Amino acid sequence: MVKKKKTKAKFRLIHFIILFLLVYVVIVFNHQRKLLNNLDSKKEINEAKIEELEKEIEDLNEEIENSGTLEFVEKVAREELGMVKPREIIYIDVNKPKDPIFNIFKKDN
């Protein structure tokens, strides 16, 4: 009878160890799957940012190429410096004071 109890105890111990290892493996795989999904979403976000920055670089390179033209000079003079052509009239909409073109007309405090 003593041998039967030892074999039953060993049998139960082996089953417990195998069950524990299976649960551990399932938990580890689940955790790694979540990490992989998280990294995939971060990768997609970073790829979208890269595409946006590449487009911005392309636009800036195009602007650099066109920087010597008269159209570019006029655009900068109008948008950034607030300059106007002779006999040109500017109408200011008082309902939209946040327009960046008209910020140059405000006094700095």
Structure write-up:
68% of the residues lie in helices and 0% in strands. It is mainly alpha-helical and 109 residues long. The protein has one domain. The chain is rod-shaped and about 110 Å long. The relative contact order is 0.04.
The secondary structure category is mainly alpha
List SSEs in N-to-C order: HH
Question: Are there runs of 5+ residues with pLDDT below 50, and where?
Answer: none
For the residues shown, what is the average pLDDT?
84
Number of strands: 0
Shape: rod-shaped
- With helices defined by DSSP (H or I, 4 residues minimum), what is the helix count? 2
The share of residues in helices is 55-70%
Summary keywords:
2 helices, 0% strand
Topology:
Layout: H1 2-65, H2 70-79
Please sum up the structure shown.
This protein is 68% helix and 0% strand. The chain has 109 residues and is mainly α. The chain has one domain.
